[in-house]
TrEMBL record:
Keywords: Methyltransferase, S-adenosyl-L-methionine, Transferase. One of its GO terms (biological process) is methylation. It is an enzyme of class 2 (transferase). It comes from Clostridium chromiireducens. One of its GO terms (molecular function) is protein-glutamate O-methyltransferase activity. This is protein-glutamate O-methyltransferase. Residues 1-271 form the CheR-type methyltransferase domain.
C-alpha cells in the first residue's frame, strides 16, 4: 500500500479544507490512505504527490469528484433524529402556513447525502398540507457536494431494510414495489425535490429567495469552528426572518448563536 508523507498529507488536507471545509486531522491519515489507495492504484501513481498534482491540474472536475466521493462520509437513514420531523410538523409548519402569505414555501436540505432526509421532508409536507397542497409551491432544494450520493437520491430507490423505519401509511401512500427487495418513491414525492450539486464553502450563496427552513444536520461535525461559524453566517443571511435552522444532535453553534435564537437542542430560529 502506498504511504503518505507528512508533507503530502498536509498539502492534500489543506486543499480539501480550503475548498470543501472538511477538516482532516492527523488521526485521519490512515483513513485517507485506505479510501484513496485504489484510486492511486488505478491511475498507476506511485505517490500521493503525483495524485495531488493530478487533482490540481485536472480541469474536467472528474478528479475532484472522485476525491470528494471517497473522502466524504455519507451515513444516513430515514427518520434520523425523528424529533426534528415531529417538531417541524407540529410547530413549524402550522406557523409557516399562517405566516407565509404568498404560499411559496422554501425548504433546503443542505448536505442531503443519498436523499433520505429530503424524501422524509417531502412526505411530511404532503401529509400536512393535504388538499391545501394544490395552492402551495413547496419544492424542497436538496444539495450535496458528492455527485455519487446525488445520483442515488435522484433514483428514489431504496431497499426493504432502508425503508423499514417509515410509517406503514407512508409506505402505502408514497412508495411502490420495484421487486421483493426494492422500493421506489412515487413521482408525486420525487417531483417535490430539486437535487443540485452545491458546495457549502462557496463564498456567496446564489439563491434569489430566502428559505423558511434549513436542515443541515451532521455536516458541520467535519468543520473547524471558523468554517462552521462562516457557514452559519451564510445560512442566517439566506433565511427569512422567523425561519428555522435544524442541525445535528451532536452539533452546536459554539455557544454563539450567530443571530439565531435557541429553540431546543439542535433547533434555532432567526429573529
Amino acid at each position: 500500500m502506498i504511504t503518505i508523507t507528512e508533507n503530502e498529507f498536509a498539502k492534500l488536507s489543506k486543499y480539501i479544507k480550503d475548498n470543501y471545509g472538511i477538516n482532516l486531522k492527523e488521526e485521519k491519515k490512515m483513513l485517507v490512505i485506505g479510501r484513496l489507495h485504489n484510486v492511486l492504484a488505478e491511475l498507476k501513481f506511485k505517490s500521493f504527490s503525483e495524485y495531488y498534482d493530478y487533482i490540481i491540474l485536472d480541469k474536467s472536475g472528474k478528479a475532484v469528484n472522485t476525491l470528494i466521493n471517497k473522502i466524504t462520509t455519507n451515513h444516513t437513514y430515514f427518520m434520523r433524529e425523528k424529533n426534528h420531523f415531529i417538531y417541524l410538523k407540529e410547530k413549524v409548519l402550522p406557523y409557516l402556513m399562517k405566516s407565509v402569505k404568498d404560499r411559496d414555501l422554501r425548504i433546503w436540505s443542505a448536505g442531503c447525502s443519498s436523499g433520505e432526509e429530503a424524501y422524509t421532508l417531502a412526505m411530511i409536507l404532503d401529509e400536512f398540507f393535504k388538499e391545501e397542497k394544490l395552492w402551495w409551491d413547496k419544492k424542497i432544494l436538496a444539495t450535496d457536494i458528492s455527485e455519487k450520493v446525488l445520483s442515488i437520491a435522484r433514483t428514489g430507490i431504496y431497499n426493504k431494510q432502508q425503508v423499514s423505519q417509515l410509517p406503514e401509511t407512508w409506505k402505502r401512500d408514497y412508495l411502490r414495489n420495484c421487486n421483493e427487495e426494492k422500493y421506489e418513491f412515487t413521482d408525486k414525492i420525487k417531483n417535490e425535490i430539486i437535487y443540485r450539486k452545491f458546495n457549502l464553502m462557496d463564498s456567496v450563496f446564489p439563491f434569489k429567495k430566502k428559505f423558511h427552513v434549513i436542515f443541515c444536520r451532521n455536516v458541520m461535525i467535519y468543520f473547524d469552528n471558523n468554517t462552521k461559524n462562516e457557514l452559519v453566517r451564510k445560512f442566517y443571511n439566506s433565511m427569512e426572518d422567523g425561519g428555522y435552522l435544524f442541525i445535528g444532535h451532536s452539533e452546536s453553534l459554539n455557544g454563539g448563536t450567530m443571530g439565531f435564537n435557541y429553540v431546543m437542542p439542535s433547533v434555532y430560529r432567526k429573529g
